[in-house]
Write a structure and sequence with these properties.
Elements: H1 3-34, H2 37-66, H3 68-72, H4 77-97
Helix pairs in contact: 1-2, 1-4
Length: 98
C-alpha cells in the first residue's frame, strides 16, 4: 500500500477514536455530576481501550508521519490535500478534547 494512503487511513482511524473520546468526555461530565461511580469506572475503562487503539495506530503510522515532508514530494496533489485535511481535522478534534 502506498505510504500516503496508509498515513491517511491511520489518521482517519485515529479521528474516529478521538471523536469517541469527545463523546465520552461529555458523558463523563454528566456521570461525575450524578456521582455514579460504577458508570464512571465503566467509562474510564472504555477510555483506556480507546487510548490503546489510538496508540496502536500511532505506532503503525509514526514512521510515515515522521517522513511526511519527504513522502509528500512524491505524492499526488489530491492525496496531499486529503492527508493535510485529515491532519487539520485531527488538530481540531484534539483542541476540543484539550
Amino acid at each position: 500500500m502506498d505510504e500516503a494512503k496508509r498515513f491517511l487511513e491511520g489518521l482517519e482511524r485515529q479521528q474516529t477514536q478521538y471523536r469517541e473520546m469527545l463523546v465520552l468526555a461529555r458523558e463523563q461530565v454528566a456521570i461525575v455530576g450524578a456521582a455514579d461511580m460504577d458508570a464512571l469506572l465503566k467509562l474510564l475503562d472504555r477510555k483506556r481501550g480507546i487510548m490503546g487503539e489510538i496508540e496502536k495506530v500511532e505506532k503503525e503510522i509514526s514512521e510515515v508521519k515522521t517522513r511526511w515532508s519527504e513522502i509528500r514530494g512524491s505524492t499526488e496533489e489530491a492525496m496531499i490535500r486529503q492527508v493535510e485535511k485529515a491532519i487539520e481535522e485531527t488538530r481540531t478534534i484534539l483542541e476540543e478534547l484539550g
